[in-house]
Amino acid sequence: MDEIAPETAEWLVDDGRDHVTDATDALDHGESELAVVARLRATGLSTEQSGAVVGAASARRRARATWPAADRLLFTRTALEQASDPQVSTWRTRRLADADVWDLGAGVGGDTLAAAAHGARVTAVDLDAARLTLLRHNAAALGADVTIVHGDALRVRPDAAALVHADPGRRLGERRVRRLVDHQPPVGALVRAHAGVRGMAIVLSPAVDLGDPDLPPDAELEFVQTGGDLREAVAWTGELRGIDVAARATLLPEGHSLTRTTAEGRAHLQVGPVGEILLDVAPAAVRARLHDRIGAEHGARRIARTRALLCLDAPPAPDPWVRWRRVHAVLPVRAKAVRAWLRTRDVDAVEFVSHGMPLDAVAWWRALGRPPRGPTGWRIELVRMDDGGRVLLTREASMADG
Length: 402
Description:
Blueprint: H1 6-14, H2 17-28, H3 33-42, H4 47-63, H5 77-82, H6 86-92, E1 100-104, H7 110-117, E2 121-126, H8 129-141, E3 146-150, E4 163-166, E5 171-172, E6 175-176, H9 187-193, E7 199-204, E8 220-226, E9 229-236, E10 245-252, E11 256-261, E12 277-281, H10 283-287, H11 291-297, E13 301-302, E14 310-312, E15 322-331, H12 335-342, E16 350-355, H13 361-367, E17 378-385, E18 388-396
Parallel strand pairs: 1-2, 1-4, 2-3, 4-7, 8-10, 16-17
Antiparallel strand pairs: 5-6, 7-9, 8-9, 10-11, 12-14, 12-15, 13-14, 15-18, 17-18
Helix pairs in contact: 1-4, 1-8, 2-4, 3-4
């Protein structure tokens, strides 16, 4: 069971914590969830209590990878899945340090606790009473002083001197939504409801449509990446916005950050032939529309007007914002031609990547003779060029040429 009733959450906090600890230990030692539930039921726990214990134990085990204090905290599975990565929360809530902050849609408290750790005085708001009960426990476990409010993010009224942090839900049932008007609560309504505060931080999908009419006007949009993964976008408004900043790209855990100002025009690289080196600009920088500027610093060119793919004729200087692969062949979009070329190489593994072209990876894999698949070998990149499609055969430079 993923989500729990308010009374079950109260029981879990008051009387069920030892059961969660024992269940976590049992799962750690290989016991199945069904077996743990059966044993809990045999002790007299109800079906809902047993499910809540095992759900919390399973969530705790998954949380250990990113939450240093996971074994002291309580989650539901769904709440953990929806919570921000603590590394990302810690970065984001730095701007909220030492302020009065209202965290709207606080859930079990990931962002609330991160803000409190920066000295913020946090009021956590959520419509889910059970999650607030778990948040109260988690705050106490970490020694954080947090005010809990069971309420609607659109109806609470923070003081004008406060900052508002909100992470609207991006799912309707099992369906992920993209339009900001379909978020829960709708982003436009959220901005209007709290227009009088000093500033807002609204967490959005990194794939947010930059032309969405409900994006806050004059907001700074920050795109945050951890490792190679683009994690989130944040719309910063009011006093939380960087001065004259239109967009920002951030790389974690290093904390590298690049900005594009409101007055700054976008660089536009020339389009040219595919070179020896394919330059992969960090996704956060691509979303912040900084890729051409980064490419210009390396003397790169585009390989197509509508693709954020850059190339060089020699390896670039070290730069945290770029990775590069050596281009070994440029072929027509025909599996037969690619297969013939691969026969001349020692193929350890292949992966398929599409840049603006439809891709049936399974069909290609079969047509190529079912070679091993994986991210450590040859990359078959289907690219929509200005004059039609091409296949680029690339490989990381650190690997021996096959």
